[in-house]
Amino acid sequence: MIRADELATITRFAPSPTGDLHLGGAWTALASWALARARGGRVILRVEDIDTPRVVRGSSERILEDLAWLGFDWDEAPIFQSARTSVYEAALAKLDAAGLTYLCDCSRAEIARAASAPHAGEEGRETIYPGTCRDASPTREMKRLPAVRIRVPEGTRITFEDAVCGKVEEDVAKSVGDFVLRRGDGVFAYQLVVAIDDADERVSHVVRADDLLSSTARQILLMRLLGYDANPSYIHVPLVVGPDGERLAKRTRGATVRELAERGVSPESIVGALAHGLGLVSTGTGPLTPREVARSLTPPNEWRKRPWPIPVDWK
Question: Is the overall model pTM greater than 0.90, yes or no?
Answer without folding.
Answer: yes
